[in-house]
C-alpha cells in the first residue's frame, strides 16, 4: 500500500504548474476531453481555480451524477490538500472510511480517484482538476496522463 501512496505523492509533487490562467484551464480541459475521446471514454471534466469553475464539460453519456461525484471528490482535494485517489488509498491503508478517519459526511467527501490538486510551484494548491465517468483508478490516470503531456509542452515553451 505504501508503494501506491508514494507513487501518487510523487505525481502530485511532479505535476505542478509554473503559472495558471483561465486560458490554460480551457486548454487543459480540452486536452482531457480529447484524450478521453481517443480512449473511447465518456467523462465529465471540471477545473476549479480559487473556488471558481474555469472549465466544465460533460461528454455525451454522462449524467448529473458525474457532476455530483466531481463535487464530492473535489471537496477531498480542497480539505486534505492531496488527490482524492491518494486519500482513498490512505483510508484503505488505515482500514478506515473517510467518515471514521475525519468525522466528515461521506455525502460531501468522496475519497475515490478522479480529483487532482491544481498546484502552482512555490505557491501551493490553488484548485482541483477533476473527472468522473471511469473506474476510479482510470479517472485518476486520465488526469495524470494529460498533465504529464501538458506540463511537458509547457516546459518546452518556457525554454524558448
TrEMBL record:
InterPro entries: PduO/GlcC-like, PduO/GlcC-like_sf, YBR137W-like. Pfam families: HbpS-like. SUPFAM superfamilies: GlcG-like. Coiled coil: none annotated. Belongs to the UPF0303 family. HAMAP family: UPF0303. This is UPF0303 protein C9I89_03200. It comes from Photobacterium lipolyticum. The lineage of its organism: Bacteria, Pseudomonadati, Pseudomonadota, Gammaproteobacteria, Vibrionales.
Amino acid at each position: 500500500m505504501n508503494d501506491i501512496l508514494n507513487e501518487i505523492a510523487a505525481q502530485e509533487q511532479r505535476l505542478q504548474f509554473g503559472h495558471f490562467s483561465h486560458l490554460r484551464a480551457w486548454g487543459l480541459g480540452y486536452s482531457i476531453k480529447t484524450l478521453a475521446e481517443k480512449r473511447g471514454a465518456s467523462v465529465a471534466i471540471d477545473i476549479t481555480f480559487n473556488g471558481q469553475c474555469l472549465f466544465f464539460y460533460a461528454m455525451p453519456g454522462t449524467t448529473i451524477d458525474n457532476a455530483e461525484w466531481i463535487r464530492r471528490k473535489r471537496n477531498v482535494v480542497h480539505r486534505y490538500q492531496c488527490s482524492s485517489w491518494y486519500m482513498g488509498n490512505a483510508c484503505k491503508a488505515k482500514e478506515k472510511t473517510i467518515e471514521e478517519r475525519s468525522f466528515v459526511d461521506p455525502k460531501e467527501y468522496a475519497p475515490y480517484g478522479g480529483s487532482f490538486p491544481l498546484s502552482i510551484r512555490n505557491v501551493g494548491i490553488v484548485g482541483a482538476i477533476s473527472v468522473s465517468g471511469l473506474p476510479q483508478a482510470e479517472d485518476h490516470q486520465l488526469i495524470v496522463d494529460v498533465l504529464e503531456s501538458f506540463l511537458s509542452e509547457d516546459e518546452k515553451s518556457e525554454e524558448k
